[in-house]
Amino acid sequence: MNASSPQRIVVGVTGASGALYAARLIQLLVAAEVETHLVVSPLGQRLLRDELGMERVDLAALAGTEAAPPNLVTHHTKDVGATIASGSFHHDGMIICPCSSNTLGAIASGNASHLIHRAAHVTLKERRKLVLVHREMPLSLIDIRNMQAVTEAGAVVAPANPGFYKLPQTVEAIADFVVGRCLDLLDVPHDLNIRWAGKIAPETTCPQPDGKTVCRPAAKR
Questions:
Q1: How many CB atoms within 10 Å of residue 18?
Q2: Which residues are within 8 A (CB) of 70 and not within 5 positions of it... i.e. 6 or more apart?
Q3: Partners of 130 in the beta sheet?
Q4: 203-207/213-217 β-pairing
Q5: Which 8-state DSSP code applies to residue 206?
Q6: 198: in domain
Q7: C-beta of residue 132 within 8 angstroms of C-beta of residue 96
Q8: Number of C-alpha atoms within 13 angstroms, CB side, residue 45?
Q9: In total, how many domains does the chain have?
Q10: For residue 147, what is the domain's CATH number?
Q11: pLDDT 10s per residue in the chain (221 long)?
Q12: Is residue 189 situated within a structural domain?
């Protein structure tokens, strides 16, 4: 991609729990005018149904827009001849969010059974950035060895582990922390409130289900 072209990012969504991460990532990529190429695996489609209530891949809903945005392109997971399966298709990075252990293992072993795997392998061989947002725990020794293998091949393993130093009050704020770190890894600008400022506020007011509030001191660092 040249300096005058918009950023181009490939996004894979697989079957590990974490549909909210995927949706927020897509929303922010689209809002940043990034040309976003989306592939959802069959288990990723089930994930969107189970956690977001989508019976099909709804581009407008994922992007948070009234209609499918022109900078969000979708590819079928079985189409291993899609543009993103070729090294001649230039892009600025690929992210799999969430990334299941099955997908991690397929990439680590060189298995290319569908388009997400193939696009990831191409990203590695072309020495482009590949970010894997693994979202399963605990880890087996197989997972750990697969993480080592993909890291040695050039990928970045970015587990969906949110920080709490910004004192998030909602599930969305927790998800935004993870997504903001992912956008940083992809060099996509954003204004999410994730930056460490060197201190935590001395106390915070936390709303409770009964309508009352409690104040707790922040943990000392």
A1: 23
A2: none
A3: 94
A4: antiparallel
A5: E
A6: yes
A7: yes
A8: 12
A9: 1
A10: 3.40.50.1950
A11: 555 678 999 999 999 999 999 999 999 999 999 999 999 999 999 999 999 999 999 999 999 999 999 999 999 999 999 999 999 999 999 999 999 999 999 999 999 889 999 999 999 999 999 999 999 999 999 999 999 999 999 999 999 999 999 999 999 999 999 999 999 999 999 999 999 888 775 555 555 666 655 555 544 44
A12: yes
pTM: 0.89
Which two tokens mark 159? 């587990």
Backbone angles phi, psi at 177, to 5 degrees: -60, -45
User: What's the CA gap between 34 and 19, in Å, rounded?
Assistant: 20
Tokens matching residue 56: 């099909």
The number of angstroms, rounded, from the C-alpha of 9 to the middle of its chain's C-alpha atoms is 11
Place of tokens 């189970």: 50
Q: Two tokens at 135?
A: 């979202």
Range of the domain at 28: 8-217
In terms of Cβ atoms closer than 10 Å to its own Cβ (0-12, 13-18, 19+), residue 139 is middle
In a domain, 3, yes or no: no
25 belongs to a structural domain:
yes
